[in-house]
Amino acid sequence: MVDEVEHQVIKNFVNGRRIRNAATLLLLAGAATASTLSAQTVPDDQASPAANLNLPQNPTIFGKQDPNVRKATAIVNNAVLTGTDVDQRIALVVALNNIKLSPEDRDQLRLQIVRQLIDETLQIQEAKNNDITVTTTEIDQGFARVSRNFKRTPDEMRAYLRQVGSSEKSMKRQIEGELAWSRLLRSRVEPFINVGDEEVKAILDRLEAAKGTDEYHLKEIYLSATPDREAEVVDASRKIIEQIRKGAPFEYFASNFSEASTRAVQGDLGWIRLATLPAPLAQAAQGMEVGQIAGPIETPGGFSILYLTDKRQVLMADPRDARLSLRQLTKNFPAGTSQAQAAKLAAQFAEATSKIRGCGEVGKVASDLGVEVVDNDSVRVRDLPPALQELMVKLQVGEATQPFGSPTEGVRVLVLCGRDDSRTASLPSAEAVQQQVEQERVNLRAQRMLRDLRRDAIVEYR
After folding, report:
1. CATH number for the 2-43+68-198+435-461 domain, one of 3.40.640.10, 1.10.4030.10, 3.40.190.10, 1.10.10.10?
2. Interval 51-71: pLDDT, tens
3. How far, in Å, are 6, 318, 424 from residue 212 at the CA level?
Protein backbone atom coordinates (compact mmCIF):
# COMPACT_ATOMS: atom_id res chain seq x y z
CA MET A 1 0.00 0.00 0.00
CA VAL A 2 2.90 2.36 0.74
CA ASP A 3 4.22 1.96 -2.81
CA GLU A 4 0.77 2.59 -4.28
CA VAL A 5 0.30 5.77 -2.27
CA GLU A 6 3.82 7.02 -2.99
CA HIS A 7 3.28 6.40 -6.71
CA GLN A 8 0.03 8.37 -6.63
CA VAL A 9 1.68 11.20 -4.72
CA ILE A 10 4.50 11.50 -7.25
CA LYS A 11 1.93 11.61 -10.02
CA ASN A 12 -0.10 14.32 -8.34
CA PHE A 13 2.44 16.39 -6.50
CA VAL A 14 5.12 18.37 -8.34
CA ASN A 15 6.01 21.98 -7.58
CA GLY A 16 3.84 21.90 -4.46
CA ARG A 17 0.60 20.71 -6.14
CA ARG A 18 -1.94 19.34 -3.66
CA ILE A 19 -4.91 17.06 -4.13
CA ARG A 20 -8.05 19.07 -4.63
CA ASN A 21 -11.04 18.68 -2.38
CA ALA A 22 -13.02 16.43 -4.69
CA ALA A 23 -16.28 16.86 -2.85
CA THR A 24 -16.15 20.65 -3.11
CA LEU A 25 -15.47 20.45 -6.84
CA LEU A 26 -18.33 18.05 -7.31
CA LEU A 27 -20.69 20.25 -5.34
CA LEU A 28 -20.13 23.02 -7.86
CA ALA A 29 -20.36 20.62 -10.81
CA GLY A 30 -23.51 18.92 -9.56
CA ALA A 31 -22.00 15.46 -9.14
CA ALA A 32 -21.99 13.30 -6.05
CA THR A 33 -19.77 14.07 -3.10
CA ALA A 34 -17.03 11.48 -2.93
CA SER A 35 -13.42 10.99 -2.10
CA THR A 36 -10.67 11.06 -4.71
CA LEU A 37 -10.66 7.66 -6.39
CA SER A 38 -8.07 5.95 -8.54
CA ALA A 39 -8.26 6.13 -12.31
CA GLN A 40 -9.72 3.45 -14.55
CA THR A 41 -6.27 3.13 -16.03
CA VAL A 42 -4.72 2.39 -12.62
CA PRO A 43 -6.92 -0.31 -11.02
CA ASP A 44 -7.23 -0.58 -7.25
CA ASP A 45 -6.52 -4.27 -7.28
CA GLN A 46 -4.22 -6.22 -9.54
CA ALA A 47 -6.39 -9.35 -9.47
CA SER A 48 -9.32 -9.74 -11.81
CA PRO A 49 -12.54 -8.29 -10.31
CA ALA A 50 -14.31 -11.57 -11.02
CA ALA A 51 -11.45 -13.80 -9.84
CA ASN A 52 -13.40 -15.21 -6.86
CA LEU A 53 -16.82 -15.46 -8.48
CA ASN A 54 -16.27 -18.53 -10.73
CA LEU A 55 -18.38 -17.06 -13.53
CA PRO A 56 -19.22 -18.99 -16.73
CA GLN A 57 -17.73 -17.55 -19.92
CA ASN A 58 -21.01 -17.64 -21.87
CA PRO A 59 -23.85 -17.39 -19.36
CA THR A 60 -27.50 -17.80 -20.29
CA ILE A 61 -29.72 -15.15 -18.70
CA PHE A 62 -33.00 -16.59 -17.41
CA GLY A 63 -35.93 -14.19 -17.40
CA LYS A 64 -35.74 -10.54 -18.33
CA GLN A 65 -34.46 -7.67 -16.26
CA ASP A 66 -34.26 -4.12 -17.54
CA PRO A 67 -32.85 -1.62 -15.02
CA ASN A 68 -34.36 1.23 -17.03
CA VAL A 69 -37.82 0.02 -16.06
CA ARG A 70 -37.22 1.01 -12.45
CA LYS A 71 -38.77 4.26 -11.39
CA ALA A 72 -36.38 6.92 -10.16
CA THR A 73 -37.25 6.47 -6.48
CA ALA A 74 -35.62 4.37 -3.77
CA ILE A 75 -35.67 3.64 -0.07
CA VAL A 76 -32.17 3.55 1.42
CA ASN A 77 -32.14 2.02 4.91
CA ASN A 78 -35.65 3.44 5.44
CA ALA A 79 -34.72 6.89 4.03
CA VAL A 80 -36.95 7.76 1.06
CA LEU A 81 -35.58 9.28 -2.15
CA THR A 82 -38.47 10.69 -4.15
CA GLY A 83 -38.82 11.36 -7.84
CA THR A 84 -38.80 15.06 -6.98
CA ASP A 85 -35.39 14.66 -5.32
CA VAL A 86 -34.03 13.12 -8.49
CA ASP A 87 -35.64 15.64 -10.85
CA GLN A 88 -34.36 18.61 -8.86
CA ARG A 89 -30.82 17.22 -8.72
CA ILE A 90 -30.88 16.62 -12.48
CA ALA A 91 -31.99 20.22 -13.00
CA LEU A 92 -29.15 21.39 -10.75
CA VAL A 93 -26.54 19.40 -12.68
CA VAL A 94 -27.82 20.58 -16.06
CA ALA A 95 -28.03 24.23 -14.98
CA LEU A 96 -24.58 24.40 -13.37
CA ASN A 97 -23.00 22.74 -16.39
CA ASN A 98 -25.03 24.86 -18.85
CA ILE A 99 -25.74 21.96 -21.17
CA LYS A 100 -28.65 20.66 -23.23
CA LEU A 101 -29.49 16.97 -22.99
CA SER A 102 -31.06 14.63 -25.49
CA PRO A 103 -33.79 12.35 -24.11
CA GLU A 104 -31.32 9.43 -24.15
CA ASP A 105 -28.69 11.42 -22.26
CA ARG A 106 -31.26 12.54 -19.72
CA ASP A 107 -32.31 8.94 -19.07
CA GLN A 108 -28.68 7.98 -18.52
CA LEU A 109 -28.14 10.96 -16.23
CA ARG A 110 -31.23 10.00 -14.21
CA LEU A 111 -29.79 6.57 -13.45
CA GLN A 112 -26.48 8.16 -12.47
CA ILE A 113 -28.19 10.70 -10.19
CA VAL A 114 -30.09 7.95 -8.39
CA ARG A 115 -26.79 6.20 -7.64
CA GLN A 116 -25.25 9.47 -6.45
CA LEU A 117 -28.18 10.26 -4.16
CA ILE A 118 -27.96 6.78 -2.67
CA ASP A 119 -24.26 7.29 -1.89
CA GLU A 120 -25.00 10.71 -0.43
CA THR A 121 -27.72 9.24 1.79
CA LEU A 122 -25.40 6.49 3.01
CA GLN A 123 -22.73 9.05 3.89
CA ILE A 124 -25.15 11.21 5.89
CA GLN A 125 -26.56 8.14 7.68
CA GLU A 126 -23.11 6.83 8.62
CA ALA A 127 -22.12 10.21 10.00
CA LYS A 128 -25.24 10.29 12.19
CA ASN A 129 -24.53 6.75 13.37
CA ASN A 130 -21.22 8.11 14.64
CA ASP A 131 -22.90 11.02 16.46
CA ILE A 132 -21.83 13.54 13.82
CA THR A 133 -24.45 16.13 12.97
CA VAL A 134 -24.44 19.15 10.70
CA THR A 135 -26.45 22.07 12.04
CA THR A 136 -28.89 24.15 10.04
CA THR A 137 -26.68 27.19 10.60
CA GLU A 138 -23.69 25.43 9.09
CA ILE A 139 -25.71 24.35 6.06
CA ASP A 140 -26.98 27.91 5.58
CA GLN A 141 -23.40 29.21 5.75
CA GLY A 142 -22.37 26.67 3.13
CA PHE A 143 -25.28 27.73 0.90
CA ALA A 144 -24.17 31.36 1.22
CA ARG A 145 -20.60 30.44 0.21
CA VAL A 146 -21.79 28.55 -2.87
CA SER A 147 -24.02 31.50 -3.78
CA ARG A 148 -21.03 33.85 -3.61
CA ASN A 149 -19.07 31.49 -5.87
CA PHE A 150 -21.77 32.04 -8.48
CA LYS A 151 -21.79 35.80 -7.81
CA ARG A 152 -25.28 35.73 -6.32
CA THR A 153 -26.81 36.52 -2.98
CA PRO A 154 -28.57 33.61 -1.19
CA ASP A 155 -31.97 35.05 -2.18
CA GLU A 156 -30.86 35.38 -5.81
CA MET A 157 -29.54 31.81 -5.71
CA ARG A 158 -32.86 30.52 -4.39
CA ALA A 159 -34.71 32.30 -7.20
CA TYR A 160 -32.25 30.94 -9.78
CA LEU A 161 -32.63 27.37 -8.53
CA ARG A 162 -36.44 27.63 -8.71
CA GLN A 163 -36.14 29.08 -12.21
CA VAL A 164 -34.10 26.12 -13.51
CA GLY A 165 -36.39 23.55 -11.87
CA SER A 166 -34.22 22.72 -8.87
CA SER A 167 -34.49 23.93 -5.29
CA GLU A 168 -32.61 25.28 -2.31
CA LYS A 169 -33.33 21.97 -0.56
CA SER A 170 -31.49 19.96 -3.23
CA MET A 171 -28.34 22.04 -2.99
CA LYS A 172 -28.43 22.12 0.80
CA ARG A 173 -28.69 18.35 0.87
CA GLN A 174 -25.45 18.17 -1.10
CA ILE A 175 -23.84 20.59 1.32
CA GLU A 176 -24.97 18.49 4.29
CA GLY A 177 -23.55 15.36 2.67
CA GLU A 178 -20.19 17.00 2.02
CA LEU A 179 -19.86 18.37 5.55
CA ALA A 180 -21.04 15.16 7.23
CA TRP A 181 -18.71 12.92 5.22
CA SER A 182 -15.65 15.14 5.66
CA ARG A 183 -16.23 15.28 9.43
CA LEU A 184 -16.66 11.53 9.58
CA LEU A 185 -13.31 11.07 7.84
CA ARG A 186 -11.64 13.51 10.24
CA SER A 187 -13.07 11.57 13.17
CA ARG A 188 -12.63 7.95 12.08
CA VAL A 189 -9.80 7.99 9.57
CA GLU A 190 -7.41 10.93 9.82
CA PRO A 191 -6.28 10.32 13.44
CA PHE A 192 -5.02 6.87 12.46
CA ILE A 193 -2.97 7.94 9.43
CA ASN A 194 0.77 8.13 10.10
CA VAL A 195 3.52 9.00 7.61
CA GLY A 196 7.16 8.45 8.59
CA ASP A 197 10.18 10.56 7.71
CA GLU A 198 11.71 7.75 5.66
CA GLU A 199 8.61 7.51 3.48
CA VAL A 200 8.74 11.24 2.82
CA LYS A 201 12.44 11.07 1.97
CA ALA A 202 11.78 8.19 -0.46
CA ILE A 203 9.18 10.27 -2.30
CA LEU A 204 11.50 13.27 -2.53
CA ASP A 205 14.29 11.04 -3.85
CA ARG A 206 12.00 9.61 -6.51
CA LEU A 207 10.87 13.09 -7.53
CA GLU A 208 14.48 14.14 -7.89
CA ALA A 209 15.23 11.05 -9.97
CA ALA A 210 12.27 11.87 -12.24
CA LYS A 211 13.53 15.39 -12.93
CA GLY A 212 13.27 16.32 -16.59
CA THR A 213 10.83 13.56 -17.56
CA ASP A 214 7.63 14.51 -19.38
CA GLU A 215 4.34 14.64 -17.51
CA TYR A 216 0.87 14.99 -18.94
CA HIS A 217 -2.21 16.39 -17.20
CA LEU A 218 -5.01 14.28 -18.63
CA LYS A 219 -8.73 13.86 -18.15
CA GLU A 220 -10.54 10.70 -19.21
CA ILE A 221 -14.00 9.44 -19.99
CA TYR A 222 -14.18 5.64 -19.98
CA LEU A 223 -17.10 3.64 -21.39
CA SER A 224 -17.12 -0.14 -20.97
CA ALA A 225 -18.10 -2.28 -23.96
CA THR A 226 -18.79 -5.96 -24.41
CA PRO A 227 -18.08 -7.35 -27.92
CA ASP A 228 -21.74 -7.13 -28.91
CA ARG A 229 -21.95 -3.46 -27.81
CA GLU A 230 -18.72 -2.11 -29.31
CA ALA A 231 -20.39 -0.32 -32.23
CA GLU A 232 -22.98 1.23 -29.91
CA VAL A 233 -20.32 2.49 -27.47
CA VAL A 234 -18.11 3.86 -30.25
CA ASP A 235 -21.08 5.77 -31.63
CA ALA A 236 -21.91 7.14 -28.17
CA SER A 237 -18.26 8.17 -27.69
CA ARG A 238 -18.21 10.04 -30.97
CA LYS A 239 -21.40 11.91 -30.04
CA ILE A 240 -19.82 12.94 -26.73
CA ILE A 241 -16.68 14.16 -28.52
CA GLU A 242 -18.82 16.11 -30.98
CA GLN A 243 -20.69 17.86 -28.18
CA ILE A 244 -17.46 18.70 -26.34
CA ARG A 245 -15.96 20.21 -29.49
CA LYS A 246 -19.09 22.34 -29.79
CA GLY A 247 -18.45 23.74 -26.33
CA ALA A 248 -20.05 21.32 -23.86
CA PRO A 249 -17.92 20.85 -20.71
CA PHE A 250 -15.71 17.75 -20.74
CA GLU A 251 -16.17 17.58 -16.96
CA TYR A 252 -19.93 17.17 -17.30
CA PHE A 253 -19.62 13.99 -19.37
CA ALA A 254 -16.80 12.66 -17.18
CA SER A 255 -18.85 13.19 -14.00
CA ASN A 256 -22.07 11.73 -15.31
CA PHE A 257 -21.26 9.18 -18.02
CA SER A 258 -17.75 7.86 -17.41
CA GLU A 259 -17.63 4.39 -15.86
CA ALA A 260 -14.18 4.94 -14.36
CA SER A 261 -13.90 5.74 -10.68
CA THR A 262 -12.33 9.07 -11.72
CA ARG A 263 -15.83 10.32 -12.52
CA ALA A 264 -15.81 11.44 -8.86
CA VAL A 265 -13.16 14.04 -9.79
CA GLN A 266 -14.58 14.96 -13.21
CA GLY A 267 -12.36 12.45 -15.02
CA ASP A 268 -9.13 14.03 -13.78
CA LEU A 269 -6.17 11.62 -13.96
CA GLY A 270 -3.86 14.31 -12.56
CA TRP A 271 -0.24 14.71 -13.64
CA ILE A 272 1.03 11.38 -14.92
CA ARG A 273 3.89 9.90 -16.92
CA LEU A 274 2.91 7.89 -19.98
CA ALA A 275 4.59 4.75 -18.66
CA THR A 276 1.77 4.45 -16.11
CA LEU A 277 -0.92 4.30 -18.82
CA PRO A 278 -2.04 1.34 -20.95
CA ALA A 279 -0.21 1.34 -24.29
CA PRO A 280 -3.18 2.59 -26.41
CA LEU A 281 -3.75 5.60 -24.13
CA ALA A 282 -0.02 6.37 -23.86
CA GLN A 283 0.36 6.31 -27.63
CA ALA A 284 -2.60 8.62 -28.12
CA ALA A 285 -1.50 11.07 -25.41
CA GLN A 286 2.02 11.32 -26.79
CA GLY A 287 0.76 12.81 -30.03
CA MET A 288 -1.74 15.24 -28.46
CA GLU A 289 -1.43 19.00 -28.16
CA VAL A 290 -2.64 20.90 -25.09
CA GLY A 291 -6.39 21.44 -25.36
CA GLN A 292 -6.87 18.53 -27.77
CA ILE A 293 -9.38 15.65 -27.45
CA ALA A 294 -8.57 12.14 -28.66
CA GLY A 295 -10.85 9.14 -29.02
CA PRO A 296 -12.58 6.86 -28.95
CA ILE A 297 -9.47 4.87 -28.00
CA GLU A 298 -9.93 1.11 -27.61
CA THR A 299 -8.69 -0.13 -24.24
CA PRO A 300 -9.17 -3.42 -22.39
CA GLY A 301 -12.87 -3.73 -21.71
CA GLY A 302 -14.05 -0.60 -23.48
CA PHE A 303 -13.19 2.77 -25.01
CA SER A 304 -11.68 5.97 -23.63
CA ILE A 305 -11.82 9.65 -24.53
CA LEU A 306 -8.77 11.69 -23.49
CA TYR A 307 -8.42 15.43 -22.98
CA LEU A 308 -4.93 16.91 -22.55
CA THR A 309 -5.19 19.96 -20.29
CA ASP A 310 -1.47 20.59 -19.84
CA LYS A 311 2.04 19.24 -20.34
CA ARG A 312 5.32 19.83 -18.49
CA GLN A 313 8.66 18.38 -17.39
CA VAL A 314 9.13 17.34 -13.79
CA LEU A 315 10.96 19.98 -11.71
CA MET A 316 12.02 21.89 -14.83
CA ALA A 317 11.29 25.49 -15.78
CA ASP A 318 8.40 25.70 -18.23
CA PRO A 319 8.26 28.61 -20.69
CA ARG A 320 4.48 28.60 -20.25
CA ASP A 321 4.95 29.60 -16.61
CA ALA A 322 6.46 32.89 -17.77
CA ARG A 323 4.49 36.02 -16.82
CA LEU A 324 3.80 38.45 -19.64
CA SER A 325 3.13 42.16 -19.82
CA LEU A 326 0.62 42.62 -22.63
CA ARG A 327 -1.30 45.33 -24.45
CA GLN A 328 -4.41 44.24 -26.30
CA LEU A 329 -5.96 46.12 -29.21
CA THR A 330 -9.59 45.25 -29.95
CA LYS A 331 -11.61 46.15 -33.02
CA ASN A 332 -15.32 45.40 -32.65
CA PHE A 333 -17.40 44.61 -35.71
CA PRO A 334 -20.83 46.12 -36.39
CA ALA A 335 -23.83 43.88 -35.72
CA GLY A 336 -24.65 41.62 -38.66
CA THR A 337 -21.09 41.49 -40.03
CA SER A 338 -20.73 38.54 -42.38
CA GLN A 339 -17.77 36.17 -42.47
CA ALA A 340 -16.51 37.78 -45.68
CA GLN A 341 -16.80 41.29 -44.26
CA ALA A 342 -15.08 40.18 -41.05
CA ALA A 343 -12.20 38.68 -43.03
CA LYS A 344 -11.71 41.95 -44.93
CA LEU A 345 -11.78 44.07 -41.77
CA ALA A 346 -9.40 41.65 -40.04
CA ALA A 347 -6.95 41.87 -42.96
CA GLN A 348 -6.95 45.68 -42.74
CA PHE A 349 -6.45 45.46 -38.97
CA ALA A 350 -3.60 42.98 -39.41
CA GLU A 351 -1.80 45.20 -41.91
CA ALA A 352 -1.96 48.20 -39.57
CA THR A 353 -0.89 46.31 -36.43
CA SER A 354 1.95 44.45 -38.17
CA LYS A 355 3.82 47.77 -38.37
CA ILE A 356 3.85 48.20 -34.56
CA ARG A 357 7.43 48.55 -33.29
CA GLY A 358 7.15 48.05 -29.57
CA CYS A 359 4.50 48.87 -27.00
CA GLY A 360 5.32 52.58 -27.21
CA GLU A 361 3.55 52.76 -30.58
CA VAL A 362 0.38 50.97 -29.46
CA GLY A 363 -1.35 54.15 -28.32
CA LYS A 364 -0.78 55.95 -31.62
CA VAL A 365 -1.86 52.98 -33.76
CA ALA A 366 -4.96 52.50 -31.61
CA SER A 367 -5.85 56.17 -31.98
CA ASP A 368 -5.41 56.04 -35.77
CA LEU A 369 -7.58 52.93 -36.04
CA GLY A 370 -10.13 54.03 -33.44
CA VAL A 371 -9.82 50.81 -31.44
CA GLU A 372 -9.76 49.95 -27.72
CA VAL A 373 -6.57 49.25 -25.75
CA VAL A 374 -6.43 47.12 -22.57
CA ASP A 375 -3.26 46.51 -20.52
CA ASN A 376 -2.38 43.53 -18.34
CA ASP A 377 1.03 43.31 -16.67
CA SER A 378 0.87 39.82 -15.16
CA VAL A 379 -0.54 37.11 -17.42
CA ARG A 380 0.84 33.58 -17.26
CA VAL A 381 1.29 31.98 -20.67
CA ARG A 382 -0.42 28.78 -19.52
CA ASP A 383 -3.52 30.75 -18.49
CA LEU A 384 -4.11 31.78 -22.11
CA PRO A 385 -6.13 29.65 -24.54
CA PRO A 386 -3.97 26.81 -25.98
CA ALA A 387 -3.79 28.34 -29.47
CA LEU A 388 -2.49 31.64 -28.04
CA GLN A 389 0.02 29.87 -25.80
CA GLU A 390 1.90 28.63 -28.84
CA LEU A 391 1.97 32.14 -30.30
CA MET A 392 3.15 33.85 -27.11
CA VAL A 393 5.96 31.38 -26.34
CA LYS A 394 7.61 32.26 -29.68
CA LEU A 395 6.86 35.99 -29.61
CA GLN A 396 9.69 38.49 -28.97
CA VAL A 397 9.26 41.60 -26.82
CA GLY A 398 7.77 44.39 -28.94
CA GLU A 399 6.15 42.05 -31.46
CA ALA A 400 2.42 41.67 -32.06
CA THR A 401 0.43 38.51 -32.65
CA GLN A 402 -1.61 37.81 -35.73
CA PRO A 403 -5.23 38.99 -35.37
CA PHE A 404 -7.63 36.53 -33.79
CA GLY A 405 -11.35 36.62 -33.03
CA SER A 406 -14.71 36.02 -34.70
CA PRO A 407 -17.39 37.95 -36.64
CA THR A 408 -19.47 38.28 -33.46
CA GLU A 409 -16.68 39.11 -30.99
CA GLY A 410 -14.51 41.27 -33.23
CA VAL A 411 -10.77 40.95 -33.78
CA ARG A 412 -7.88 41.34 -31.34
CA VAL A 413 -4.11 41.64 -31.35
CA LEU A 414 -1.74 41.16 -28.40
CA VAL A 415 1.53 43.11 -28.20
CA LEU A 416 4.23 41.69 -25.91
CA CYS A 417 5.72 44.44 -23.73
CA GLY A 418 7.75 42.27 -21.35
CA ARG A 419 8.38 38.73 -20.14
CA ASP A 420 9.46 37.41 -16.75
CA ASP A 421 10.65 33.87 -17.39
CA SER A 422 10.00 31.17 -14.81
CA ARG A 423 12.81 29.77 -12.72
CA THR A 424 13.74 26.12 -12.39
CA ALA A 425 11.26 24.48 -10.08
CA SER A 426 12.38 23.18 -6.70
CA LEU A 427 11.39 20.10 -4.74
CA PRO A 428 8.33 20.48 -2.51
CA SER A 429 8.96 20.69 1.22
CA ALA A 430 8.95 17.55 3.38
CA GLU A 431 5.92 18.90 5.25
CA ALA A 432 3.98 19.40 2.02
CA VAL A 433 4.80 15.86 0.85
CA GLN A 434 3.75 14.45 4.21
CA GLN A 435 0.40 16.24 3.98
CA GLN A 436 -0.08 14.89 0.47
CA VAL A 437 0.59 11.29 1.48
CA GLU A 438 -1.76 11.61 4.43
CA GLN A 439 -4.52 12.95 2.18
CA GLU A 440 -4.00 10.13 -0.32
CA ARG A 441 -4.36 7.55 2.43
CA VAL A 442 -7.48 9.22 3.79
CA ASN A 443 -8.95 9.11 0.28
CA LEU A 444 -8.19 5.40 -0.09
CA ARG A 445 -9.79 4.62 3.27
CA ALA A 446 -12.82 6.74 2.36
CA GLN A 447 -13.23 4.77 -0.84
CA ARG A 448 -13.28 1.50 1.09
CA MET A 449 -15.71 2.87 3.67
CA LEU A 450 -18.17 3.87 0.96
CA ARG A 451 -17.85 0.45 -0.68
CA ASP A 452 -18.65 -1.21 2.65
CA LEU A 453 -21.65 1.05 3.17
CA ARG A 454 -23.00 0.16 -0.28
CA ARG A 455 -22.49 -3.55 0.39
CA ASP A 456 -24.33 -3.49 3.72
CA ALA A 457 -27.13 -1.12 2.69
CA ILE A 458 -30.73 -2.19 2.17
CA VAL A 459 -31.92 -0.38 -0.95
CA GLU A 460 -35.44 -0.89 -2.27
CA TYR A 461 -36.34 0.57 -5.67
CA ARG A 462 -39.96 1.60 -6.08
Report:
1. 1.10.4030.10
2. 555 566 556 555 554 544 445
3. 19, 11, 11
